[in-house]
Recover the amino acids of this structure.
């Protein structure tokens, strides 16, 4: 379709405005992450978008290295929270993907578990806050409070609906001919699933896993309730960072926020093609 | 064609007789869905019964008795009657709805406008698209911190406003009850307009181009094409996009809690924040359980409705695809 030059001008102007508004908060955090202490709370004329004296001190500080300006010692460094975030998100993704994929295949091919689509949507619908009382009691009983494996288990359950629905739509679309050929060859149905279906579905499996990982990595509330000290995740750790001497540790927090924000943004761009399907429970394909 | 029919057809064509697939596949199907079924039971059925039981008592973890002995403080549905008179709860519910009523339409209109700009190809489209999607991938807690910094009284937002107006503006965004609510809404709109944009654009791209071309040839103006062809075509998709945001805003917590902690006072306290505070500070878990159950029941009704809409969307989709093939 040809458009008029006036429309093109309007379009670029509108998009430029949207881009500016999108990037503004992000750029400020990036800038803050590289600012030395004196610039953290500079106001008025001293307020700059580009650090005057850019430094990596904020990153060094959260990882426990001593820096020239920040003489406060951290009670604990960012290493452990990063490890906790990684472990809980990765194993949570594993639980969700293994259970979700198997169940999606069972429903898509054999019609088993017809109750699951609705049950899992309801699971997703509920605010986590509204089911946390029993979860906290059960987790305490099972000794899962403040452990990464306890977090992984609840993450696996919380993101199971996404894994299930995404894989279900992929299985529904997959041509049956390949599987049927293998069946005629005499493979058992389980062997067909393991040796034919799953390898063929490598790409969809990877995008689903990445989406589930992003969702797990992004959690704050659940970790806030289920961890206390040893295995807090990055967002919980970040929120708790402050010192009695310097008040808000703006730069250090921004550095951590930047580290936490980078993986999902990169992964999200990588799986852009499947985002719509994943986030609308397969109601919409791109 | 169902799986069994397919197999029957294959079996008829194959020279060898296949093993009794029907029973085999039913058993396999059962085994494959079993872990998920167990997890659902583990997280839904048992906890809900526990929640129901505790909600009828005054039990608190500080009582020093196990939750199964909660009957000792049985209170004859007092939690539920208290809830009716709990002004903080009604306030939180009201505020959640206000945020919903402002943010969902704002996100929808902004996203629809942007999506119409992205319908055809133009130089730079792909990179702009990727950048515009970034906010929804930022960890919500981190987004909350970004906006916490932006809205500081000596922060960059006031800096920009000062530069634009030439005056020294020092608005204390997060400590004014009304402005704090505005700030929280701005953060939500920033983060979730991209999701709506993504969904609506996917819908608009699916509008058949020949229809639009035909309408143009017949002399339809852009406005006519938009309102008579495009909008009706993406009706279901709009409903899905709106439903997703309504549900998610109902749960709003991360960004908001990092920005204001529900304050100043209770000015930005939403349902989730309220429940969180009663859970961790007041520790009256019997009461929390009652609130949670009320929310769960209300939402279950919504779930059934949403599910029907999505089923209709999928079926409509299938019909459209069949039509295209024919």
């Amino acid at each position: 379709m040809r458009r008029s030059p006036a429309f093109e001008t309007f379009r670029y102007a509108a998009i430029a405005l949207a881009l500016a508004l999108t990037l503004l908060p992000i750029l400020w955090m990036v800038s803050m992450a590289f600012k030395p202490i004196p610039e953290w709370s500079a106001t008025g004329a001293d307020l700059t978008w580009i650090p005057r004296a850019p430094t990596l001190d904020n990153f060094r500080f959260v990882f426990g290295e001593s820096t020239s300006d920040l003489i406060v010692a951290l009670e604990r460094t960012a290493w452990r929270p990063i490890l906790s975030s990684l472990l809980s998100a990765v194993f949570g993704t594993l639980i969700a993907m293994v259970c979700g994929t198997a169940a999606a295949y069972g429903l898509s091919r054999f019609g088993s578990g017809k109750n699951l689509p609705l049950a899992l949507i309801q699971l997703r619908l509920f605010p986590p806050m509204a089911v946390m009382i029993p979860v906290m009691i059960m987790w305490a009983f099972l000794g899962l409070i403040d452990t990464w494996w306890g977090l992984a288990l609840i993450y696996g359950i919380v993101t199971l609906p996404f894994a299930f629905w995404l894989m279900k739509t992929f299985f529904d679309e997959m041509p049956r001919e390949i599987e049927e050929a293998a069946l005629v060859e005499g493979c058992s149905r389980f062997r067909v699933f393991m040796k034919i279906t799953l390898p063929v579905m490598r790409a969809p499996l990877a995008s689903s896993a990445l989406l589930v990982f992003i969702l797990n990595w992004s959690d704050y509330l659940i970790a806030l309730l289920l961890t206390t000290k040893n295995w807090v995740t990055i967002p919980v750790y970040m929120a708790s960072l402050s010192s009695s001497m310097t008040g808000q540790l703006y730069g250090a927090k921004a550095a951590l926020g930047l580290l936490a924000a980078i993986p999902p943004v990169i992964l999200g761009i990588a799986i852009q093609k499947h985002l719509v399907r994943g986030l609308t429970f397969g109601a919409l394909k791109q | 064609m169902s799986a069994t029919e397919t197999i029957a057809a294959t079996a008829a064509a194959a020279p060898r007789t296949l093993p009794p697939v029907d029973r085999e596949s039913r058993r396999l199907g059962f085994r494959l869905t079993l872990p998920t079924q167990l997890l659902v039971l583990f997280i839904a059925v048992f906890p809900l019964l526990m929640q129901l039981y505790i909600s009828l008592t005054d039990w608190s973890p500080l009582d020093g008795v196990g939750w199964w002995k909660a009957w000792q403080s049985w209170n004859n549905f007092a939690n539920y009657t208290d809830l009716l008179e709990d002004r903080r709860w009604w306030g939180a519910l009201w505020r959640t709805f206000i945020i919903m009523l402002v943010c969902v339409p704002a996100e929808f209109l902004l996203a629809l406008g942007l999506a119409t700009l992205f319908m055809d190809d133009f130089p730079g489209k792909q990179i702009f698209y990727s950048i515009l999607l970034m906010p929804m991938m930022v960890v919500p807690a981190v987004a909350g911190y970004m906006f916490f910094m932006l809205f500081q009284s000596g922060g960059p937002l006031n800096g920009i406003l000062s530069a634009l107006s030439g005056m020294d503006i020092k608005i204390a965004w997060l400590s004014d009850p009304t402005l704090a609510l505005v700030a929280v809404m701005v953060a939500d709109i920033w983060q979730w307009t991209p999701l709506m944009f993504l969904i609506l654009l996917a819908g608009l791209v699916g509008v058949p181009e020949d229809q639009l071309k035909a309408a143009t040839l017949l002399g339809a103006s852009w406005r006519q094409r938009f309102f008579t062809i495009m909008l009706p075509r993406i009706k279901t998709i709009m409903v899905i996009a709106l439903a997703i945001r309504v549900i998610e805003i109902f749960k709003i917590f991360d960004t908001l809690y990092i920005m204001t902690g529900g304050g100043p006072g209770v000015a930005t306290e939403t349902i989730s924040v309220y429940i969180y505070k009663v859970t961790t500070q007041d520790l009256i878990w019997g009461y929390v359980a009652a609130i949670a159950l009320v929310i769960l029941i209300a939402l279950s009704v919504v779930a059934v409705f949403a599910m029907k809409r999505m089923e209709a969307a999928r079926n409509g989709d299938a019909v459209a695809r069949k039509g295209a093939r024919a």
